[in-house]
Design brief:
With about 500 residues, the chain is an alpha/beta fold. The chain folds into two domains: about 10-145, NAD(P)-binding Rossmann-like Domain (Rossmann fold, 3-Layer(aba) Sandwich); about 175-415 and about 440-480, Dihydrodipicolinate Reductase, domain 2 (2-Layer Sandwich). Helix content is about 35%, strand content about 20%. It has a nine-stranded mixed β-sheet, with helices on both faces. The structure holds NADPH dihydro-nicotinamide-adenine-dinucleotide phosphate and 6-O-phosphono-beta-D-glucopyranose. NADPH dihydro-nicotinamide-adenine-dinucleotide phosphate binds next to helix 1 and strand 2.
Length: about 500
């Protein structure tokens, strides 16, 4: 396949929104400051509000300053960056209105259209771009998650976009794939001989994936209430992490090689029946409590009405293939939990026979590989070793972590942890879709998630309340304890 041309402009629809100002503009600024943006690359923000380009640049400047803290924004880098920015007031779903974008793009030949917009607008924007001649073969379109609310709505969006853009032109973002440690997981598994022979049901007892947030839903409830934790987090971020842990080695780092392996995992996820949904899943919703030392409102208070939307999910997932048969994956994600933590824990089996006897036998614990993604990036392998010193009762054992702390790797004077969107935006500019989600991946994930949502419906499983600041409903502990394991908190 011929190499995609480097993009020469980006149009950020929804360019004055939360995502654009908090993440996308700071990411573009840092890319520019580090010399990654092509010469002449233009940035056009588009939203309906009437703003002058100067007023808009000022908003961006404030957002970049806030994000760069504690580092100051370099005046030369800012001057170069702000000269690239333009703002147009348009309705992105109206081809007539989009003429302002045609004009602003001028002679740009390979523009990126980034839809930082509500997914309900994706179909309309795709059609409007096609109608005004902007969906050229050299253009690219970037979609934020969630793509649809279920398989059917996701297919409608994908079908509509496919009328104007080929699959190679569509970049579906899951920002977890831009995170440094998520990519490091690929390196850890496939750039070391150490782990791969052990990465299967002969040696691994179970896997835990936790994506815990301390924040509540707050003002995002109009979106969140329609989706809930299953659709907002499990369908995308959590399943992407699961795929990277569980996939077979891809033949290379080519986009399709990687994504083919992820799709195979998604197809192997065991579907939930109504009975399994009750036994192997927990839905929760935070009630009032104390989060990070402060009184926190219940979700229903934030929302202003009763709601059946879950803010917490825990699942026991089985992957029906040769590698993972008999190895449960325990997933949990939620808002208003006691700490912010994204972690993958690979629990190995214990040694088949202990030679130590006596007290040392009790010391013996099975190896665990703990991959922390947030807030700190760290990889620890918990190993057993001899406790130092001598004792009349023979050898004692202790567990010690072998740590590969990325904090240290980022601790130089100019070190800065990159925003996940920096990597992803750069990949869209150069046309590399390896870290983006292919249509069949999104749809397989929805197919599985729809099954859970349907099973919940059939079993009339309402979310159980949990106090804000706790680790979810008691059922989440029972779920893993029934399988003879415990969360690695
Ligand atoms: P916001 O509501 O903050 O921003 C939406 C933007 O879209 C506003 O600038 C709005 O401005 C503009 N807009 C709305 N309708 C139109 C239209 N017809 N034509 C042009 N512009 C329009 O949303 P977010 O930034 O939070 O989210 C955007 C997308 O990103 C969503 O899909 C969300 O799910 C996703 N996302 C967001 C994350 C976040 O952290 N915020 C994280 C991950 C995904 P105006 O009213 O002036 O038109
Ligand atoms: C978004 C979800 O995709 O990811 C949010 O819509 C969630 O609900 C966020 O808070 C978490 O992202 P991160 O990078 O802060 O872990």
């Amino acid at each position: 396949m011929p190499k995609a041309p480097e993009a020469d402009a980006i149009v950020l629809f929804g360019g004055a929104g939360d995502l654009a100002l908090r993440m996308l503009f700071p990411s573009l600024y840092f890319l520019d400051a580090d010399g990654f943006l092509p010469d002449g690359f233009r940035i056009i923000a588009a939203a309906r509000s009437a703003l002058t380009p100067d007023a808009f640049r000022e908003e961006v400047r404030e957002a970049v300053i806030a994000r760069a803290q504690p580092t100051a924004v370099d005046p030369d880098a800012w001057a170069r960056f702000s000269a690239r920015i333009d703002y147009r007031a348009v309705d992105a779903t109206d081809p007539e209105s989009l003429k302002a974008i045609v004009e602003a793009l001028g002679d740009a030949r390979a523009p990126i259209f980034y839809l930082a917009l509500s997914p309900s607008l994706y179909i309309g924007v795709g059609r409007a771009l096609a109608a005004c001649g902007l969906a050229t073969p050299a253009s690219r379109i970037v979609l934020e998650k969630p793509i649809g609310r279920d398989l059917a709505s996701s297919q409608r969006i994908n079908d509509a976009l496919a009328e104007a853009f080929t699959e190679e032109q569509v970049f579906r973002i899951d920002h977890y794939l831009g995170k440094e440690t998520v990519q490091n997981l690929i390196a850890l598994r496939f750039a070391n001989t150490l782990f791969e022979p052990l990465w299967n049901n002969l040696t691994i007892d179970h896997v835990q994936i936790t994506v815990a947030e301390t924040e509540g839903v707050g003002e995002r409830w109009p979106y969140y209430d329609e989706y809930g934790a299953l659709r907002d987090m499990v369908q995308n971020h959590v399943l992407q992490l699961l795929c990277l842990v569980a996939m077979e080695p891809p033949s290379d780092m080519d986009a399709d090689s990687l994504r083919n392996e992820k799709v195979k995992v998604l197809r192997s996820l065991r579907r939930f029946s109504r009975h399994e949904a009750v036994a192997a899943s927990v839905r929760g919703q935070y009630a009032a409590g104390v989060a990070q030392g402060q009184a926190a409102e219940a979700y229903e208070t934030e929302r202003g009405a009763a709601s059946e939307t879950e803010t917490f999910v825990a699942l026991r997932v089985d992957i029906d293939n040769w590698r993972w048969a008999g190895v449960p994956f325990f997933l949990r994600t939620g808002k208003r939990l006691p700490e912010r933590r994204t972690q993958i824990a690979i629990q190995f089996k214990g040694v088949p026979h202990s030679i130590f006897g006596g007290a040392a036998d009790g010391d013996l614990i099975a190896n665990r590989l703990v991959i922390d993604l947030q807030p700190d990036e760290d990889i620890e392998l918990i190993l057993m070793n001899k406790a130092p010193g001598i004792s009349q009762r023979g050898m004692r054992l202790q567990s010690l972590p072998l740590s590969l702390s990325l904090l240290k790797a980022y601790s130089g004077p100019n070190a800065r942890r990159r925003i996940a969107y920096e990597r992803l935006l750069l990949d869209v500019i150069v046309g590399n879709s390896a870290l983006f989600v292919r249509r069949d991946e999104v749809e397989e994930a929805w197919r599985w998630v729809d099954g859970i949502a349907e099973a919940w419906g059939e079993a009339a499983m309402a979310p159980k309340p949990y106090p804000a600041g706790s680790w979810g409903p008691a059922g989440a502990f029972a779920l893993i304890e029934r399988a003879g394991r415990a969360w690695s908190d």
